[in-house]
TrEMBL record:
Residues 244-342 form the HTH araC/xylS-type domain. PANTHER family: HTH-TYPE TRANSCRIPTIONAL REGULATOR GADX. Keywords: DNA-binding, Transcription, Transcription regulation. GO terms for cellular component: cytosol. It holds the Pfam family Arabinose_bd. The keyword Transcription applies. InterPro entries: AraC-type_N, Homeodomain-like_sf, HTH_AraC. SMART domains: HTH_ARAC (SM00342). It comes from Methylobacterium tardum. Gene3D superfamilies: Homeodomain-like (1.10.10.60). The keyword DNA-binding applies. This is AraC family transcriptional regulator. GO terms for molecular function: DNA-binding transcription factor activity; transcription cis-regulatory region binding.
Length: 386
């Protein structure tokens, strides 16, 4: 099992909990593949009643279960199978709000703003660059150590949501996955019905920006307002702090090389001194949180993709490979290559820098889609200056 719940500064992170529908989908997918969920729970020493009732379960436990299930059933795309069982209705009140939003763009912005009521521990981003829209998903808590499984499951669900909101003639342009390409990628091609790029730095669905203006058929404004009111009441009941909210913001920005306190100030999220004072009161600093975000993404890309260490260094905005190696050693006690050897699954292909030099890597997500200035993500209200 990979190192899991500590950040780059050694602090323990909150435990992310799944919604009940996720574990039901896991159970159904495992049974369909011929596995006994009870046997898997026993092997992992998890609660035999994990699938009972409507209680939430730590994502770390579910991700361990999915990982073992994928191995025992010889189904590396188990996360995809679980995600494609979800629908707009699976999102409960958030699904109602999206279904009755005026346009697809309004629905997706609602998803970005309110994803926390449905799925604590991950952040959704919506980027627009000219005629391209990008809907991304990134776990930022302890479950980020299983980001490949977590992300492909989420992208499958978001693809189903988009299909429910749009006309029949709509299609994805591209799908980006932060995992190495499996030996058989046909299940991904069949489900997404679009080119699927593996070994990417983020998980994202790419589609025409024109879709954002499309009206949602049958949307009822009254139902939309009622659902939004219920969601805001749920959000008011949730415990939150500045540290966790900045983790969300930084997770979206870390691969865009914008993890700087000065930028936060320029965006008017918070005054720099106020930010520092409030974070100190919570036992951390902006630099610690930024390093934590970089460390988590670095570990995920080293373990789940075949990107070279040099490419990962560039993705995270380091000026040179030596600087990345020095930082990673400070965070983990070992080098990026050493950490990869100890933590990368044995059945994955070699990293890109060890493969045939004639093989060209996929263009990076940032270079192709995020050069433009517009990238909408949740900027929590409590970050405002106090």
């Amino acid at each position: 099992m990979r190192p899991g719940s500590a950040g780059a500064n050694g602090q323990l992170l909150p435990v992310a909990l799944s919604r009940p529908g996720v574990k039901q989908a896991i159970y159904a997918a495992l049974v369909e593949l011929g596995a006994d969920p009870g046997d898997l729970l026993a092997e992992l020493k998890l609660d035999p009643g994990l699938f009972d009732g409507g209680t939430r379960v730590p994502y770390a436990d579910l991700n361990r279960l999915i990982t073992l299930g994928a191995d025992r059933t010889n189904c590396p795309h188990l996360g995809l199978l679980i995600g494609q069982r979800a629908s707009l209705g699976s999102l409960r009140q958030l699904g109602v709000l999206m279904r009755h939003s005026e346009t697809v763009g309004d629905a997706l912005r609602a998803l970005v703003l309110h994803v926390g009521v449905q799925n604590w521990g991950a952040v959704v981003g919506l980027g627009i660059d000219c005629d391209i829209a990008v809907l991304s998903y990134a776990p930022y808590g302890p479950e980020a150590d299983w980001a490949a499984i977590h992300s492909e499951r989420a992208l499958a669900t978001m693809a189903n949501v988009l299909r429910a909101l749009c006309r029949a003639d709509w299609a994805l342009q591209e799908v980006l996955l932060p995992r190495s390409k499996p030996r058989d990628a046909s299940p991904y091609d069949r489900f997404f019905q679009a080119p699927v790029r593996f070994d990417q730095e983020v998980a994202a669905l790419v589609f025409s920006a024109k879709l954002m203006e499309q009206r949602v058929a049958g949307a009822k404004p009254v139902v939309c307002r009622m659902a939004e009111g219920r969601i805001r009441r749920l959000e008011a009941e949730q415990a939150s702090n500045l540290t966790d909210e900045l983790r969300q913001y930084l997770r979206i920005q870390v691969t865009r090389q914008r993890c700087k306190a000065e930028r936060v100030a320029r965006l008017r999220l918070v005054d720099r001194r106020t930010l520092s004072r409030r974070l100190r009161a919570e036992g951390t600093t902006f630099r610690q949180l930024a390093n934590e975000a970089k460390f988590r993404v670095a570990k995920q890309l080293l373990a789940d993709t075949t990107m070279s260490v040099t490419q990962i260094s560039e993705v995270l905005g380091f000026s040179e490979l030596a600087a990345f190696t020095h930082a990673f050693r400070r965070w983990s006690g070992t080098t990026p290559s050493g950490w990869r050897r100890e933590n990368k699954p044995a059945d994955t292909v070699q990293p890109m820098n060890a493969r045939n030099a004639t093989e060209r890597p996929n263009p990076s997500f940032r270079a192709r889609y995020l050069r433009g200035p517009i990238f909408f993500c949740h900027l929590p209200a409590s970050i405002d200056p106090a």
